[in-house]
Amino acid sequence: MRDTDLLAEALDRLQREFAALPAWTPEVPGEERMAAVLAEAAQRLGDNFPYFHPLYAGQMLKPPHPIARAAYAMAMWLNPNNHALDGGRASSRMEWEAVREIAAMFGWREFVGHLTGGGTLANLEALWVAGQMMPGKKIVASEQAHYTHERITAVLRLPFASIACDESGRMDLAHLESALASGEVGTVVATLGTTGSGAVDPLGPILDLRQKYRFRLHVDGAYGGYFRLASNLGDDAARAFERIAEADSIVVDPHKHGLQPYGCGCVLFRDPAMGRWYKHDSPCTYFTSQELHIHGEAPQAGASCGVGSFAAELFAEGSLHLGEISLECSRAGASAVALWTTQRLLPLVPGGEFAKELEKCREAALRLHSIISSDTRFVAGPAPDLDIVVFAMRAPTLTESSRRAQEVFDRAASRDLHLALAQMPPRLFPGAGWTDAGEGRMVTCLRSVLMKPEHLGWVEQIGERLREAT
Protein backbone atom coordinates (compact mmCIF):
# COMPACT_ATOMS: atom_id res chain seq x y z
CA MET A 1 0.00 0.00 0.00
CA ARG A 2 1.32 3.45 -0.92
CA ASP A 3 1.88 6.22 1.60
CA THR A 4 -0.98 8.20 0.07
CA ASP A 5 -3.39 5.28 0.48
CA LEU A 6 -2.39 4.86 4.12
CA LEU A 7 -2.89 8.58 4.67
CA ALA A 8 -6.31 8.67 3.00
CA GLU A 9 -7.64 5.87 5.21
CA ALA A 10 -6.17 7.39 8.37
CA LEU A 11 -7.57 10.85 7.60
CA ASP A 12 -11.03 9.40 7.06
CA ARG A 13 -10.83 7.81 10.52
CA LEU A 14 -9.54 11.04 12.07
CA GLN A 15 -12.40 13.07 10.60
CA ARG A 16 -14.92 10.64 12.10
CA GLU A 17 -13.44 11.36 15.55
CA PHE A 18 -14.77 14.94 15.23
CA ALA A 19 -18.07 14.09 13.54
CA ALA A 20 -20.12 15.48 16.44
CA LEU A 21 -19.07 19.05 15.64
CA PRO A 22 -21.37 21.27 13.54
CA ALA A 23 -20.61 21.02 9.82
CA TRP A 24 -18.08 23.59 8.64
CA THR A 25 -15.97 23.93 5.52
CA PRO A 26 -12.98 26.26 5.71
CA GLU A 27 -12.51 28.77 2.93
CA VAL A 28 -9.15 28.49 1.22
CA PRO A 29 -8.29 31.57 -0.87
CA GLY A 30 -6.61 30.69 -4.15
CA GLU A 31 -7.68 27.06 -3.99
CA GLU A 32 -7.95 26.83 -7.78
CA ARG A 33 -4.24 27.73 -8.09
CA MET A 34 -2.95 25.23 -5.53
CA ALA A 35 -2.46 22.35 -7.98
CA ALA A 36 -0.31 24.49 -10.25
CA VAL A 37 1.78 25.79 -7.36
CA LEU A 38 2.28 22.27 -5.97
CA ALA A 39 3.30 21.03 -9.41
CA GLU A 40 5.89 23.80 -9.54
CA ALA A 41 7.16 22.85 -6.08
CA ALA A 42 7.43 19.19 -7.14
CA GLN A 43 9.49 20.23 -10.15
CA ARG A 44 11.77 22.34 -7.96
CA LEU A 45 12.28 19.42 -5.55
CA GLY A 46 13.56 17.37 -8.47
CA ASP A 47 16.73 19.46 -8.15
CA ASN A 48 18.01 17.12 -5.43
CA PHE A 49 20.23 14.12 -5.03
CA PRO A 50 18.24 10.85 -4.93
CA TYR A 51 18.48 10.49 -1.16
CA PHE A 52 15.95 7.64 -1.18
CA HIS A 53 17.92 5.41 -3.60
CA PRO A 54 20.55 2.81 -2.57
CA LEU A 55 23.05 4.43 -4.95
CA TYR A 56 22.95 7.48 -2.71
CA ALA A 57 25.55 6.60 -0.08
CA GLY A 58 26.91 10.03 0.77
CA GLN A 59 25.47 11.98 3.68
CA MET A 60 23.34 10.76 6.60
CA LEU A 61 20.02 10.83 4.83
CA LYS A 62 17.62 7.94 5.29
CA PRO A 63 14.05 8.01 3.96
CA PRO A 64 11.35 7.94 6.65
CA HIS A 65 9.33 4.78 6.94
CA PRO A 66 6.06 5.00 4.94
CA ILE A 67 4.02 4.79 8.14
CA ALA A 68 6.01 7.68 9.64
CA ARG A 69 5.30 9.85 6.60
CA ALA A 70 1.61 9.00 6.71
CA ALA A 71 1.33 9.54 10.48
CA TYR A 72 3.17 12.86 10.31
CA ALA A 73 0.94 14.12 7.49
CA MET A 74 -2.20 12.95 9.31
CA ALA A 75 -1.17 14.78 12.49
CA MET A 76 -0.57 17.94 10.47
CA TRP A 77 -4.32 18.12 9.81
CA LEU A 78 -4.55 19.10 13.48
CA ASN A 79 -1.05 20.62 13.77
CA PRO A 80 -0.64 19.87 17.50
CA ASN A 81 1.88 21.73 19.64
CA ASN A 82 3.57 19.59 22.28
CA HIS A 83 4.53 22.52 24.43
CA ALA A 84 1.64 21.57 26.73
CA LEU A 85 -1.44 19.39 26.85
CA ASP A 86 -3.56 22.35 25.75
CA GLY A 87 -1.89 22.28 22.36
CA GLY A 88 -1.37 18.55 21.98
CA ARG A 89 -3.34 16.33 24.33
CA ALA A 90 -3.02 13.10 22.38
CA SER A 91 0.37 13.84 20.83
CA SER A 92 1.90 14.77 24.21
CA ARG A 93 0.89 11.42 25.65
CA MET A 94 2.24 9.71 22.54
CA GLU A 95 5.52 11.54 23.06
CA TRP A 96 5.75 10.30 26.64
CA GLU A 97 5.14 6.73 25.49
CA ALA A 98 7.58 6.89 22.56
CA VAL A 99 10.34 8.47 24.65
CA ARG A 100 9.84 5.84 27.36
CA GLU A 101 10.47 3.14 24.77
CA ILE A 102 13.68 4.84 23.62
CA ALA A 103 14.87 5.10 27.22
CA ALA A 104 14.06 1.41 27.76
CA MET A 105 16.23 0.59 24.75
CA PHE A 106 19.16 2.00 26.77
CA GLY A 107 18.11 0.19 29.94
CA TRP A 108 16.51 3.16 31.74
CA ARG A 109 13.18 2.94 33.55
CA GLU A 110 13.62 6.00 35.77
CA PHE A 111 14.64 9.10 33.81
CA VAL A 112 13.45 12.40 32.42
CA GLY A 113 13.51 13.23 28.71
CA HIS A 114 11.66 14.51 25.69
CA LEU A 115 11.84 15.04 21.95
CA THR A 116 13.63 18.00 20.37
CA GLY A 117 13.97 19.50 16.92
CA GLY A 118 17.18 17.53 16.33
CA GLY A 119 20.48 16.35 17.75
CA THR A 120 22.05 19.80 18.01
CA LEU A 121 19.34 21.10 20.34
CA ALA A 122 19.27 17.80 22.24
CA ASN A 123 23.03 18.05 22.85
CA LEU A 124 22.61 21.70 23.81
CA GLU A 125 20.15 20.73 26.52
CA ALA A 126 22.37 17.94 27.82
CA LEU A 127 25.42 20.21 28.01
CA TRP A 128 23.35 23.05 29.48
CA VAL A 129 22.35 20.77 32.36
CA ALA A 130 25.97 19.61 32.63
CA GLY A 131 26.99 23.24 32.98
CA GLN A 132 24.48 23.71 35.79
CA MET A 133 25.88 20.67 37.58
CA MET A 134 29.54 21.51 36.92
CA PRO A 135 29.56 25.32 36.68
CA GLY A 136 32.57 26.80 34.92
CA LYS A 137 34.12 23.40 34.27
CA LYS A 138 35.54 22.41 30.90
CA ILE A 139 33.67 20.17 28.45
CA VAL A 140 35.81 17.80 26.38
CA ALA A 141 35.02 15.65 23.35
CA SER A 142 36.99 13.71 20.76
CA GLU A 143 38.39 15.59 17.78
CA GLN A 144 36.07 13.33 15.74
CA ALA A 145 33.01 14.37 17.75
CA HIS A 146 30.43 16.51 15.99
CA TYR A 147 31.56 20.10 15.55
CA THR A 148 28.43 21.40 17.26
CA HIS A 149 29.78 20.45 20.70
CA GLU A 150 32.41 23.16 20.50
CA ARG A 151 29.86 25.65 19.20
CA ILE A 152 27.36 24.71 21.90
CA THR A 153 29.90 25.25 24.68
CA ALA A 154 30.70 28.65 23.21
CA VAL A 155 26.99 29.53 23.37
CA LEU A 156 26.91 28.32 26.98
CA ARG A 157 30.08 30.31 27.76
CA LEU A 158 31.88 27.19 28.95
CA PRO A 159 35.48 26.22 28.14
CA PHE A 160 35.97 23.41 25.62
CA ALA A 161 38.89 21.16 24.69
CA SER A 162 39.29 18.59 21.94
CA ILE A 163 40.77 15.17 22.75
CA ALA A 164 42.88 13.44 20.08
CA CYS A 165 41.62 10.28 18.45
CA ASP A 166 43.52 7.05 17.80
CA GLU A 167 43.99 5.19 14.49
CA SER A 168 40.45 3.83 14.75
CA GLY A 169 38.94 7.31 15.03
CA ARG A 170 38.03 6.73 18.69
CA MET A 171 38.84 8.97 21.64
CA ASP A 172 42.43 8.42 22.80
CA LEU A 173 42.30 7.36 26.45
CA ALA A 174 45.81 8.54 27.32
CA HIS A 175 45.05 12.04 26.04
CA LEU A 176 41.73 12.02 27.88
CA GLU A 177 43.31 11.05 31.21
CA SER A 178 45.94 13.75 30.77
CA ALA A 179 43.14 16.32 30.40
CA LEU A 180 41.24 14.88 33.39
CA ALA A 181 44.34 15.01 35.58
CA SER A 182 44.29 18.82 35.36
CA GLY A 183 41.09 18.88 37.42
CA GLU A 184 39.53 21.34 34.99
CA VAL A 185 37.16 18.95 33.19
CA GLY A 186 33.54 18.78 34.31
CA THR A 187 31.95 16.84 31.43
CA VAL A 188 33.21 14.25 28.97
CA VAL A 189 31.26 13.73 25.76
CA ALA A 190 31.60 10.17 24.46
CA THR A 191 30.42 9.71 20.88
CA LEU A 192 28.85 6.39 20.00
CA GLY A 193 28.91 6.74 16.25
CA THR A 194 30.93 9.72 15.00
CA THR A 195 29.53 11.44 11.95
CA GLY A 196 32.89 11.23 10.18
CA SER A 197 33.73 7.54 10.32
CA GLY A 198 31.06 6.04 12.56
CA ALA A 199 33.63 5.34 15.29
CA VAL A 200 32.39 4.29 18.73
CA ASP A 201 34.36 5.83 21.60
CA PRO A 202 35.58 3.33 24.29
CA LEU A 203 32.76 3.99 26.73
CA GLY A 204 33.75 1.32 29.26
CA PRO A 205 37.27 2.65 29.93
CA ILE A 206 35.91 6.21 30.00
CA LEU A 207 33.40 5.18 32.65
CA ASP A 208 36.21 3.53 34.58
CA LEU A 209 38.08 6.84 34.56
CA ARG A 210 35.02 8.40 36.16
CA GLN A 211 35.80 6.33 39.27
CA LYS A 212 39.10 8.20 39.56
CA TYR A 213 38.12 11.66 38.33
CA ARG A 214 34.84 13.41 39.06
CA PHE A 215 33.00 14.34 35.86
CA ARG A 216 29.65 13.98 34.14
CA LEU A 217 29.47 11.64 31.19
CA HIS A 218 27.28 12.57 28.24
CA VAL A 219 26.79 10.11 25.37
CA ASP A 220 26.18 11.61 21.96
CA GLY A 221 24.41 8.76 20.20
CA ALA A 222 22.65 11.06 17.75
CA TYR A 223 23.85 8.93 14.85
CA GLY A 224 24.70 5.57 16.36
CA GLY A 225 22.43 5.23 19.39
CA TYR A 226 20.00 2.78 17.84
CA PHE A 227 22.82 0.28 17.26
CA ARG A 228 22.29 -0.66 20.92
CA LEU A 229 19.85 -3.17 19.38
CA ALA A 230 22.23 -4.66 16.79
CA SER A 231 23.66 -8.12 17.44
CA ASN A 232 26.48 -8.04 14.86
CA LEU A 233 28.73 -5.28 16.23
CA GLY A 234 32.44 -5.80 16.78
CA ASP A 235 33.61 -6.60 20.30
CA ASP A 236 34.76 -3.06 21.14
CA ALA A 237 31.56 -1.38 19.97
CA ALA A 238 29.37 -4.02 21.62
CA ARG A 239 31.14 -3.50 24.94
CA ALA A 240 30.60 0.25 24.68
CA PHE A 241 26.87 -0.10 24.09
CA GLU A 242 26.57 -2.59 26.93
CA ARG A 243 27.53 0.17 29.39
CA ILE A 244 25.52 3.02 27.91
CA ALA A 245 23.02 2.89 30.80
CA GLU A 246 25.77 4.21 33.11
CA ALA A 247 25.92 7.56 31.30
CA ASP A 248 24.43 10.68 32.90
CA SER A 249 22.68 11.75 29.70
CA ILE A 250 22.09 10.37 26.22
CA VAL A 251 21.10 11.93 22.91
CA VAL A 252 19.73 9.98 19.96
CA ASP A 253 18.20 11.18 16.69
CA PRO A 254 15.06 9.34 15.54
CA HIS A 255 15.34 11.26 12.26
CA LYS A 256 18.48 9.29 11.43
CA HIS A 257 18.26 5.55 12.06
CA GLY A 258 14.85 5.89 13.72
CA LEU A 259 13.11 6.21 10.32
CA GLN A 260 11.57 9.61 11.12
CA PRO A 261 11.14 12.81 9.10
CA TYR A 262 13.36 15.75 10.01
CA GLY A 263 13.54 17.07 12.63
CA CYS A 264 13.23 14.71 15.52
CA GLY A 265 15.85 14.41 18.23
CA CYS A 266 15.65 13.04 21.76
CA VAL A 267 17.48 13.93 24.99
CA LEU A 268 17.41 11.72 28.09
CA PHE A 269 18.74 12.18 31.63
CA ARG A 270 19.34 9.17 33.88
CA ASP A 271 18.49 11.14 37.03
CA PRO A 272 14.84 12.31 36.91
CA ALA A 273 15.76 15.15 39.28
CA MET A 274 17.48 16.90 36.37
CA GLY A 275 14.01 18.19 35.50
CA ARG A 276 14.46 20.78 38.24
CA TRP A 277 16.79 22.82 36.04
CA TYR A 278 13.96 23.39 33.57
CA LYS A 279 11.33 24.55 36.05
CA HIS A 280 10.13 28.08 35.35
CA ASP A 281 7.12 30.33 35.75
CA SER A 282 5.18 30.81 32.54
CA PRO A 283 3.32 34.08 31.83
CA CYS A 284 0.49 31.91 30.45
CA THR A 285 -1.53 29.49 32.57
CA TYR A 286 -2.13 26.12 30.97
CA PHE A 287 -5.55 25.58 32.49
CA THR A 288 -6.28 22.29 30.72
CA SER A 289 -2.85 20.88 31.53
CA GLN A 290 -3.21 21.79 35.20
CA GLU A 291 -6.73 20.41 35.42
CA LEU A 292 -5.66 17.10 33.95
CA HIS A 293 -2.69 16.87 36.28
CA ILE A 294 -4.68 17.67 39.42
CA HIS A 295 -7.30 15.07 38.55
CA GLY A 296 -4.67 12.38 38.18
CA GLU A 297 -4.80 11.98 34.41
CA ALA A 298 -1.11 12.77 34.06
CA PRO A 299 1.19 9.77 33.62
CA GLN A 300 2.38 8.12 36.81
CA ALA A 301 5.76 6.58 37.55
CA GLY A 302 6.15 3.28 35.72
CA ALA A 303 3.35 4.10 33.27
CA SER A 304 3.83 4.72 29.56
CA CYS A 305 5.57 8.07 29.79
CA GLY A 306 8.87 9.82 29.28
CA VAL A 307 9.43 10.71 32.91
CA GLY A 308 10.62 8.98 36.04
CA SER A 309 9.24 9.19 39.57
CA PHE A 310 10.47 12.72 40.38
CA ALA A 311 9.02 14.22 37.23
CA ALA A 312 5.83 12.17 37.58
CA GLU A 313 5.29 13.72 41.00
CA LEU A 314 5.63 17.18 39.50
CA PHE A 315 3.12 16.26 36.81
CA ALA A 316 0.73 15.07 39.51
CA GLU A 317 1.07 18.42 41.26
CA GLY A 318 0.10 20.20 38.08
CA SER A 319 3.41 22.10 38.07
CA LEU A 320 5.26 20.50 35.17
CA HIS A 321 4.36 19.92 31.54
CA LEU A 322 6.37 19.06 28.45
CA GLY A 323 7.16 22.70 27.85
CA GLU A 324 8.79 22.79 31.25
CA ILE A 325 11.23 19.93 30.67
CA SER A 326 12.47 21.46 27.42
CA LEU A 327 14.34 24.58 26.43
CA GLU A 328 12.08 24.74 23.38
CA CYS A 329 8.54 26.01 23.75
CA SER A 330 6.51 25.20 20.64
CA ARG A 331 7.38 21.72 19.37
CA ALA A 332 5.83 19.73 16.54
CA GLY A 333 3.35 17.22 17.91
CA ALA A 334 3.39 15.59 14.49
CA SER A 335 6.94 14.38 15.19
CA ALA A 336 5.72 12.57 18.28
CA VAL A 337 2.80 11.00 16.41
CA ALA A 338 5.06 9.75 13.62
CA LEU A 339 7.60 8.31 16.10
CA TRP A 340 4.93 6.64 18.25
CA THR A 341 3.31 5.09 15.18
CA THR A 342 6.61 3.78 13.82
CA GLN A 343 7.63 2.24 17.15
CA ARG A 344 4.18 0.69 17.46
CA LEU A 345 4.79 -1.06 14.13
CA LEU A 346 8.50 -1.75 14.70
CA PRO A 347 9.23 -2.14 18.44
CA LEU A 348 12.70 -1.24 19.70
CA VAL A 349 13.69 -4.72 20.83
CA PRO A 350 16.77 -6.87 20.17
CA GLY A 351 16.09 -9.43 17.46
CA GLY A 352 13.05 -7.55 16.19
CA GLU A 353 12.40 -6.38 12.64
CA PHE A 354 13.81 -2.91 13.36
CA ALA A 355 17.01 -4.35 14.86
CA LYS A 356 17.51 -6.73 11.94
CA GLU A 357 17.30 -3.86 9.47
CA LEU A 358 20.08 -2.07 11.39
CA GLU A 359 22.19 -5.20 11.21
CA LYS A 360 21.89 -5.16 7.41
CA CYS A 361 23.43 -1.67 7.38
CA ARG A 362 26.37 -2.87 9.45
CA GLU A 363 26.85 -5.91 7.19
CA ALA A 364 26.79 -3.70 4.08
CA ALA A 365 29.58 -1.53 5.54
CA LEU A 366 31.72 -4.56 6.33
CA ARG A 367 31.34 -5.86 2.77
CA LEU A 368 32.19 -2.51 1.18
CA HIS A 369 35.22 -2.14 3.45
CA SER A 370 36.38 -5.59 2.30
CA ILE A 371 35.98 -4.60 -1.37
CA ILE A 372 37.99 -1.41 -0.83
CA SER A 373 40.69 -3.18 1.18
CA SER A 374 41.31 -5.61 -1.68
CA ASP A 375 41.80 -2.85 -4.28
CA THR A 376 45.34 -1.43 -4.33
CA ARG A 377 44.13 1.90 -5.71
CA PHE A 378 42.52 2.67 -2.36
CA VAL A 379 43.76 3.02 1.20
CA ALA A 380 41.06 1.66 3.49
CA GLY A 381 40.35 3.52 6.70
CA PRO A 382 39.50 1.82 10.00
CA ALA A 383 37.24 -1.22 9.91
CA PRO A 384 33.75 0.25 10.43
CA ASP A 385 32.29 0.16 13.94
CA LEU A 386 28.81 0.84 12.53
CA ASP A 387 27.78 1.49 8.92
CA ILE A 388 30.15 4.22 7.68
CA VAL A 389 33.19 3.48 5.52
CA VAL A 390 36.02 5.97 4.91
CA PHE A 391 38.82 5.44 2.40
CA ALA A 392 41.55 7.47 0.72
CA MET A 393 43.18 7.26 -2.68
CA ARG A 394 46.58 5.61 -3.06
CA ALA A 395 49.13 8.29 -3.97
CA PRO A 396 52.69 9.23 -2.98
CA THR A 397 51.58 12.40 -1.19
CA LEU A 398 48.65 13.51 0.90
CA THR A 399 48.10 16.41 -1.50
CA GLU A 400 47.84 14.10 -4.51
CA SER A 401 45.60 11.68 -2.63
CA SER A 402 43.21 14.52 -1.79
CA ARG A 403 43.13 15.65 -5.42
CA ARG A 404 42.36 12.14 -6.65
CA ALA A 405 39.57 11.75 -4.08
CA GLN A 406 37.85 14.81 -5.52
CA GLU A 407 38.17 13.38 -9.04
CA VAL A 408 36.69 10.02 -8.03
CA PHE A 409 33.89 11.77 -6.16
CA ASP A 410 32.93 13.65 -9.34
CA ARG A 411 33.26 10.62 -11.61
CA ALA A 412 31.21 8.45 -9.30
CA ALA A 413 28.42 11.04 -9.29
CA SER A 414 28.38 10.96 -13.09
CA ARG A 415 27.66 7.22 -12.72
CA ASP A 416 24.80 7.91 -10.29
CA LEU A 417 26.88 6.80 -7.30
CA HIS A 418 26.75 9.57 -4.73
CA LEU A 419 29.45 9.52 -2.06
CA ALA A 420 30.75 12.20 0.30
CA LEU A 421 34.10 13.88 0.86
CA ALA A 422 35.50 14.16 4.36
CA GLN A 423 38.56 15.71 6.01
CA MET A 424 40.32 13.15 8.19
CA PRO A 425 43.61 12.99 10.14
CA PRO A 426 46.20 10.91 8.23
CA ARG A 427 46.68 8.57 11.21
CA LEU A 428 43.39 6.91 10.27
CA PHE A 429 45.27 5.56 7.23
CA PRO A 430 48.52 4.18 8.72
CA GLY A 431 49.46 2.28 5.56
CA ALA A 432 49.22 5.25 3.20
CA GLY A 433 52.91 6.20 3.29
CA TRP A 434 52.31 9.84 2.37
CA THR A 435 55.54 11.81 2.37
CA ASP A 436 53.91 15.14 3.28
CA ALA A 437 51.61 14.01 6.12
CA GLY A 438 52.83 16.54 8.67
CA GLU A 439 51.39 17.38 12.05
CA GLY A 440 48.02 19.09 11.82
CA ARG A 441 47.46 18.24 8.17
CA MET A 442 44.23 16.60 7.00
CA VAL A 443 43.55 14.40 4.01
CA THR A 444 40.47 14.65 1.82
CA CYS A 445 39.05 11.15 1.65
CA LEU A 446 35.90 9.48 0.40
CA ARG A 447 33.12 8.49 2.77
CA SER A 448 30.18 6.18 2.25
CA VAL A 449 27.21 6.07 4.64
CA LEU A 450 25.38 2.76 4.19
CA MET A 451 22.44 3.53 6.48
CA LYS A 452 19.70 2.06 4.30
CA PRO A 453 19.07 -1.67 4.77
CA GLU A 454 18.73 -1.87 0.99
CA HIS A 455 22.41 -1.02 0.69
CA LEU A 456 23.21 -4.62 1.55
CA GLY A 457 21.81 -5.79 -1.77
CA TRP A 458 23.60 -3.03 -3.67
CA VAL A 459 27.12 -3.29 -2.26
CA GLU A 460 28.53 -5.13 -5.28
CA GLN A 461 27.09 -2.57 -7.68
CA ILE A 462 28.39 0.28 -5.51
CA GLY A 463 31.83 -1.35 -5.61
CA GLU A 464 31.67 -1.80 -9.38
CA ARG A 465 30.70 1.81 -10.04
CA LEU A 466 33.42 2.95 -7.66
CA ARG A 467 36.00 0.91 -9.57
CA GLU A 468 34.79 2.41 -12.85
CA ALA A 469 35.16 5.90 -11.40
CA THR A 470 38.73 5.29 -10.25
Can you describe this structure in just a few lines?
With 470 residues, this protein is of the alpha/beta class.
Which CATH top level class of the largest domain fits? Alpha Beta
Structural class: alpha/beta
Give the strand line-up of the largest sheet.
Answer: 1-7-6-5-4-2-3
Count of DSSP H/I helices: 15
The poorly predicted ranges are 285-319
Total strands: 11
- Counting structural domains, the number is 2
Instruction: Spell out the CATH superfamily of the largest domain.
Output: Type I PLP-dependent aspartate aminotransferase-like (Major domain)
* Measured distance between first and last alpha carbons: 40 Å
Largest sheet: 7 strands, mixed
What does this structure look like?
With 470 residues, this protein is an alpha/beta fold. It folds into 2 domains: 89-345, Type I PLP-dependent aspartate aminotransferase-like (Major domain) (Aspartate Aminotransferase, domain 2, 3-Layer(aba) Sandwich), CATH 3.40.640; 353-469, Alpha-Beta Complex (Aspartate Aminotransferase, domain 1). The chain contains 15 helices and 11 strands. The strands form 2 sheets. Strands 1-7-6-5-4-2-3 form a 7-stranded mixed sheet, with helices on both faces. The two termini are 40 Å apart. The model is unreliable at 285-319 (pLDDT under 50).
